[in-house]
């Protein structure tokens, strides 16, 4: 008898407190203990231009706090270590990350690095990859966040991604200690986002959902229905936010969707994939292309290459997200691929390799870089079934649009 | 200009750890600190018949634990206070509730009552209703649960309902201290549920969702889409579980749905109603009818009476849950009412007042009991807009099926 397809056993635990709504930043003063010595972390000047910086300073005017700025997209180990020094020297006992996913990711690393007992905190990121529990974090400075760029959901999950320039390494790390204590989501902070960041955030969110949803059908109706709902929201609300950047309802729906897309809930019970992300990361490392743009360029090729494996779910998506009730599963799967490309293009996101600086001449290098993951990092092959090897990468790239 | 309809500002915080899947009860031994002195609470004998009692004892064979049984449906203050005495006398420092919502609810009360500093713990339930913070709980014994009857979601929320026999009072109470530390959801524990309990659980879950979803449309797409997904799951999976009680996939979907239906998530940002529950509770108090049956009897009358107020959402439900894309909002709302009655009837749940022991001759008494809530408890009128008074109750009952 065939094994019944159903939920993989799982644990779900997400203790981050979400404060959601317009003009909620003043609540910071009650969310952070009065006696704390805070290090506020942020990136460039955008929070100074959009007024968030002033709102935070006003909320914390009775707290003691220092600032650490200059956190970049694809945040760096080397820069983060400067904040670690400040934390130790100044006895910082609360970290407040204000900005997008990169700021929060760097701050998560800082939170465990400042409490690390051995010599090099990078070991927690690189060596723990091989399962050596000696290098697991044991303590962290508590973190709160004010998120201003909805995309990564770092504000409500326990992961971060960090790069080390000197060694050209880029790793992700997940640990229960990394859940923020609280995150403030004020949709009004996104009114002034540049158009391309709204588009990138929507596509990043969309593909986060896809990496969890468009996998083997295991009759996991709860994550499936939530994922479809979130996809439906991205499709319907993104054009509204682009048309009218101060559409509160659209901004609120997009902001909460991006958090819900990667706060563990829709991952529980299902297979996860993340092959699109893995290939996209290498392209960003090679050409500096925006993360979301690389995902949009890879998705069509990956789906075409893995259509048989993912057919049931792609057909389900055609029925429940794109409203196509008629036809075979094969036709429905093709419909989903086509409609997704059309949606991305309609909001101004290209779905071609050339748009991220890649041509046929780069295929071998991308494949080689992925192969390094297997040989040097001893990482498993990509994909939900760990069956995507370096040779498959070439075939996937050949199915992408040039 | 009309106010933009969107999310009410909210806080979402739910720190309960969920352990989900077949054969997860042995994990208890690592979930509860080794040195704990545990009081295991349960109801009648069902956990002894279905093997759950033995699984728990086996898992905790290296722990020190006592037992407290006999917790009834609609659990009682008087009985719970016996457990409070045990907790104090035996220095219990962990409570493990094994059973359905009633067991968990009583255990939640026990957890705060055993730590209460003043004379009568009932004050935390009754007097805090009037906002006197003196009577708020300040500490609680930590709780874990093994849920065997999916319905109330008490395993992942911070609320309980308790009755005091001597004063004929029944109150609900919510407090952050009441989130269980963990809850084990093993779908296999529901294989042996009596058919009527599977039906009651499904209807209870369905109407929990409705009390949050079938309210004013505020463009709250995340809770809306999740609620629709959960309704879809109840409709599709309940018949499978009734047809084949050991259908793991159906049991798993129903179990996780009932938790998700009332773990705060779909309540955040929306108006909530709970009028169906309020009227149903009075009927249970009068005739002893099952909670879920009273809800199914009241729903048609409440929806007909409040159709104008709820029309947008009832029409949305027709489109997205029952697949009716054509027609006016009014026609769609009627369709939703009709299809919901048909669904309840199809799984063996009656939707008539006579099925819960109520006839026309009882309408005045129900109305009077509701009125007592306003005059004695100073509770606000019922419904999402607090516009349902005693006189409206008569009209709602007249629109129910006899």
From TrEMBL, chains A, B:
Residues 198-369 form the Fe-containing alcohol dehydrogenase-like C-terminal domain. GO terms for cellular component: cytosol. InterPro entries: ADH_Fe/GldA, ADH_Fe_C, ADH_Fe_CS, BDH-like. Residues 15-187 form the Alcohol dehydrogenase iron-type/glycerol dehydrogenase GldA domain. PROSITE patterns: ADH_IRON_1 (PS00913). Keywords: Oxidoreductase. GO terms for molecular function: alcohol dehydrogenase (NADP+) activity; butanol dehydrogenase (NAD+) activity; metal ion binding; methylglyoxal reductase (NADPH) (acetol producing) activity. This is Iron-containing alcohol dehydrogenase. It comes from Anaeramoeba ignava. The lineage of its organism: Eukaryota, Metamonada, Anaeramoebidae, Anaeramoeba.
């Amino acid at each position: 008898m065939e094994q019944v397809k159903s939920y993989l056993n799982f644990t779900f635990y997400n203790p981050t407190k979400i404060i959601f709504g317009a003009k909620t930043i003043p609540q910071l003063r009650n969310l952070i203990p009065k006696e704390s010595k805070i290090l506020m972390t942020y990136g460039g000047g955008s929070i100074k231009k959009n007024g968030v910086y002033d709102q935070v300073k006003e909320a914390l005017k009775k707290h003691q706090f220092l600032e650490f700025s200059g956190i970049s997209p694809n945040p760096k180990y080397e820069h983060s270590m400067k904040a670690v020094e400040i934390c130790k020297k100044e006895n910082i006992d609360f970290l407040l990350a204000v900005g997008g996913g990169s700021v929060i990711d760097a701050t998560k690393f800082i939170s465990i690095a400042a409490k690390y007992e051995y010599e090099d905190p990078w070991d927690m990121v690189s060596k723990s990859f091989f399962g050596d529990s000696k290098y697991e974090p044991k303590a962290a400075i508590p973190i709160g966040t004010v998120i201003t760029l909805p995309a990564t959901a770092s504000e409500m999950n326990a992961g971060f991604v960090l790069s080390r320039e000197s060694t050209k390494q880029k790793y992700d790390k997940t640990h229960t200690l990394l859940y923020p204590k609280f995150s403030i989501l004020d949709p009004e902070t996104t009114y002034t986002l540049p158009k391309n960041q709204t588009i990138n955030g929507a596509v990043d969110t969309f593909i986060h959902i896809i990496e969890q949803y468009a996998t083997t059908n295991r009759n996991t109706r709860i994550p499936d229905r939530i994922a479809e709902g979130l996809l439906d929201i991205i499709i319907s609300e993104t054009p509204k936010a682009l048309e009218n950047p101060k559409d509160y309802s659209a901004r609120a729906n997009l902001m909460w969707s991006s958090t819900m897309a990667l706060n563990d809930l829709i991952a529980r019970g299902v297979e996860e994939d993340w092959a699109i992300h893995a290939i996209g990361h290498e392209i960003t490392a090679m050409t500096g292309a925006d993360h979301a743009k690389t995902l949009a360029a890879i998705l069509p090729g990956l789906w075409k290459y893995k259509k048989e494996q993912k057919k049931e779910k792609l057909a389900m998506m055609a029925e429940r997200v794109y409203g196509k009730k008629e036809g075979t599963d094969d036709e429905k799967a093709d419909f989903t691929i086509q409609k997704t490309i059309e949606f991305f293009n309609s909001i101004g996101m290209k779905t071609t390799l050339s748009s991220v600086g890649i041509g046929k001449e780069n295929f071998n290098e991308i494949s080689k870089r992925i192969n390094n993951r297997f040989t040097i990092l001893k990482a498993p092959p990509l994909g939900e079934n760990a069956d995507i090897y370096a040779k498959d990468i070439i075939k996937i790239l050949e199915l992408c649009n040039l």
